[in-house]
Amino acid sequence: MPEYLSAHIQERLAAQAHELGIRVDVRGDVVHLRGEVVSEERRREVEEAARAAAEGHRICNEVSVVPVGEPDGEERLS
Amino acid sequence: MIRVAAAGDLHVGPEVAGAYRARLHGLADQADVFLVAGDLTRHGTVEEGRVAAGELRDLGVPVITVLGNHDYHSDAEEEIADVLRDAGVTVLENEGTVLDCGGTRLGVAGGKGFGGGFQGKCASDFGEPEMKAFVRHAKDVAARFGGALLGLDADVRVSLTHYAPVDDTLEGEPPEIYPFLGSYLLGEAIDAAGVELAIHGHAHKGTEKGLTQGGVRVRNVALPVIQHAYALYTLDPHPAPAR
C-alpha cells in the first residue's frame, strides 16, 4: 500500500545500503531523504536504494556527508 | 592526567579504505589511548573487518574497541575480532583491560551492550518467547558487562559500549526507537561500578553529552555526532566513589 512506502524504503535502505538512520518522507510522488552518511559514495548508495524501492517517484536526496576532520579541541572532565 | 581519544560508527569498507586513517595522523601526540565504540564495518564482512584493521593498526597508541550491531550482520563477528586482534587492536566483549599510561593505570571495560529501553519505557521479560529472549539477552549482556567493570583494578576506569547506557545522548533520535538504541541496564552497571567516563556510539542522530542517574559522564562518540575523526577527553585520576 502506498501509505507504507516510506517504511518499505527504509527496509531497502537497511538491506541494500546498510544505512539505518536515514529519515524517509513521502510527499505525493516525491521521496525526501534526510540524514548523514560518511562519504559521497554512501550518499549515492542511499539514493539508489531508495530509488529501487520507490519506482515512479522522484527522489529528493538531502542526505549530507559528515566532514570528519581532526578534532579542534579537547574536553577536560575533572 | 589521562588523555582519551574516542570515536564510534566508522562504518569503513573497501571503497573508503585509508580515508579514515588519513585523519588520525595527529592522534599519538594528543592521546594516550584510542577507544572505538563499535560499528567499525557496514555489513559486518571479514573483508570490511580487514579494512578496519588497516585503519587502526600501528597508530602509535593502544587501540581498544568493541564491536557494534553492524559488525554482527554477516555472522562473522568472531573473524572480524580476530582480524582486529592480529592488527594489534584490543577487542573487548564484556571484559576489561588495564593500561599503564605514564604511571597511571587506565582500566577499560567494554562490550557491545544491547537494547531494551530505559526506565519506565522498556520491554519486559514477559510473554512470547521472542520477547523474553530479547529482554533476557539484554540482561545477560549487562550483567556480564557489569562484572567486567567491577573487576577493573585501575586508577581511572572507563566504560566502552556500542549501545547507549542512558537516553540523554539519544536526544535527536525518534523516541520510538530508543529501545533499539540502548538499555538502562548498562547505565545501572556503570553506576554500580562508579567509573569516570562512559563512551558509546550507535545513535547517529543523538547528542554527545549525557549523564547517568548516578552522575557518570556519558559521551556519544558516533562520528555523525562528534563531527570529527575523534573526540578528545582528559581525565584526572581520583578514587572511585564508595558504593
The computed structural class of chain B is alpha/beta
Strand-residue fraction of chain B? 15-25%
Largest interface: A-B, 22 and 33 residues
Structural class of chain A: alpha+beta
Low-pLDDT regions of chain B: none
- What percent of residues of chain A adopt helix (DSSP H or I)? 25-40%
Q: How many distinct helices of chain A?
A: 2
Task: Report the strand count of chain B.
Answer: 13
Record the strand order, biggest sheet of chain B.
5-6-9-10-12-11
Please provide the count of β strands of chain A: 4
Cα-to-Cα separation, first versus last residue of chain A: 55 Å
Major sheet description of chain B? 6 strands, mixed
**Chain-averaged pLDDT of chain A:** 90
Pfam families (chain B): Metallophos (PF00149)
Protein name (chain B): Metallophosphoesterase
Keywords (chain B): Hydrolase, Metal-binding
Domain Calcineurin-like phosphoesterase (chain B): 2-205
Any overview of this molecule?
Chain A: InterPro entries: BON_dom. Chain A: It comes from Actinomadura graeca. Chain A: Residues 1-67 form the BON domain. Chain A: Pfam families: BON (PF04972). Chain A: This is BON domain-containing protein. The complex is a heterodimer of chains A (78) and B (243). With 78 residues, chain A is of the alpha+beta class. Helices cover 35% and strands 32% of the residues of chain A. Chain A is built from two helices and four strands; from the N terminus they run αββαββ. Chain A has helices spanning 5-17, 40-53; strands at 23-27, 30-37, 58-65, 74-77. In chain A, strands 1-2-3 form a three-stranded mixed β-sheet, covered by helices on one side. In chain A, β2, α2 and β3 form a beta-alpha-beta unit. In chain A, α1 (5-17) crosses α2 (40-53). The radius of gyration of chain A is 15 Å and the shape is elongated. The N and C termini of chain A lie far apart (55 Å). With 243 residues, chain B is α/β, with parallel strands linked by helices. Chain B is 25% helix and 23% strand. Chain B is built from six helices and 13 strands. Chain B has helices spanning 27-30, 46-56, 77-86, 129-150, 184-193, 223-226, and strands at residues 2-7, 33-36, 63-65, 90-91, 95-101, 104-111, 117-118, 121-122, 156-161, 197-200, 209-211, 217-220, 231-235. A six-stranded mixed β-sheet of chain B has the order 5-6-9-10-12-11. In chain B, α2 packs parallel to α3 and α4 runs parallel beside α5. The two termini of chain B are 24 Å apart.
